[in-house]
Amino acid sequence: MVRIEQVLPTDQHLRRLIQALDEDLLQRYDEENIYTIDLDHPDTLKTTFMVAYVDDTPAGCGAIRSLDADSVELKRFFVDSTYRRQGIAGKMLQALEQRAIEQGCQWIRLETGAEQFEATAFYERNGYYRIPVFADYKDDGISLCYEKKLDLDK
């Protein structure tokens, strides 16, 4: 059974999952092309973090942070390879999108890497479409940005 819980940035399950995400990204990209997060920075308290559990085992994580009054950015979205293709990512994405709607947001944006084919396919299947790079992301052919208009009637 999958359950999604909101957690603080100090949560050890979240930290282990983000470390696994960073290790996965380092296998695909040079370190200077990876956008990491400092979970000890005070600004992370403004970010909503969630962890997906299969039974009691942490299987994935994700976060949203405010970009402006109408939009959030999806961050640190990851499912451990052991638990992929079990619908966990979809459930976690729905939970994060619902939280964004509850915060009054109309848009959700994200950045992913050009080498993460499984991620781009997942986002496109879930209604996201490519947009120009935004925020501090570089237009370098590595960063791919996506956006989705949220259904506020949900």
From TrEMBL:
Gene Ontology terms for molecular function: acyltransferase activity, transferring groups other than amino-acyl groups
E.C. numbers: 2.3.1.-
CDD domains: NAT_SF
UniProt keyword terms in alphabetical order: Acyltransferase, Transferase
SUPFAM superfamilies: Acyl-CoA N-acyltransferases (Nat)
N-acetyltransferase domain boundaries: 2-151
InterPro entries in UniProt: Acyl_CoA_acyltransferase, Bact_Acetyltransf, GNAT_dom
Listed name of the protein: Putative N-acetyltransferase YsnE
Lineage: Bacteria, Bacillati, Bacillota, Bacilli, Bacillales
